[in-house]
Design brief:
mainly beta, 5-stranded mixed beta sheet, 5-stranded antiparallel beta sheet, globular
Amino acid sequence: MTLEILTPDKKVFEGEVTSVTLPGTLGSFQILANHAPIISTLEDGKLVVHGGGKEEVFTIQGGVVENLNNHVVVLAEGIQSK
């Protein structure tokens, strides 16, 4: 599936991933390939991207996520990679 992570000023990440774990408002959740369509608000916390045998962690400051047809878009208010 394709993941895009965007902030108000730049595109932070774009690529093929196997899963993404997100800090949802009601708790952490994971999106895998062929996940049902979803829109959710996000809290401050760790966003973990898995793909190509690697794991990449970003710390986000809130936002929203949308998943539709294996295309996940994260709109984060702020972000820093680790």
